[in-house]
Amino acid sequence: MANVRLAPVLRSSAGGSKQVSAQGNTLNEVLNDLYSRFPALKEQIQPEQELSKFVNVYVNDQDVRYLQGLETAVGASDVVTLLPAMAGGR
């Protein structure tokens, strides 16, 4: 199972967990396993077929946009990080 790290803003949708495990051989499979247990995460991460452009997703610290996107391979010892983009300022 891959380890999925959740940014603080996502933790309330995952029962307060900082990190959870999820099964799958691709990022898409890992995310679907995550959504089956924490449905509220789907709206924040992947409201459409593709990932939200406001969420950065990394597999082992590599941005999946520069890999194979949702088809990026994920191994049992890999770490997936979900990090919503933050904006602010004046």
Tell me the number of structural domains.
1
- The largest beta-sheet arranges its strands as 2-1-5-3-4
Identify low-pLDDT runs.
none
Shape: globular
State the helical fraction. 10-25%
Q: CATH superfamily, please? A: Beta-grasp domain
**Structural class category:** alpha+beta
What is the N-to-C succession of helices and strands? Answer: EHEHHEEE
Q: How many DSSP helices?
A: 3
Quaternary structure classification = single chain
Q: Could you tell me how far the N terminus lies from the C terminus, measured between alpha carbons in angstroms?
A: 42 Å
Please report which band the strand proportion falls in: under 5%, 5-15%, 15-25%, 25-35%, 35-45% or over 45%. 15-25%
Taking the sheet with the most strands, its summary is:
5 strands, mixed
- Alpha-carbon Rg, integer: 12 Å
Question: How would you portray this structure in words?
Answer:
The chain is of the alpha+beta class. The protein has a single domain, classed as Beta-grasp domain (Ubiquitin-like (UB roll)), CATH 3.10.20.30. Helix content is 23%, strand content 24%. It has three helices and five strands; from the N terminus they run E-H-E-H-H-E-E-E. The chain has a five-stranded mixed beta sheet. Strand 3 and strand 4 form a beta hairpin. 21% of the residues are buried.
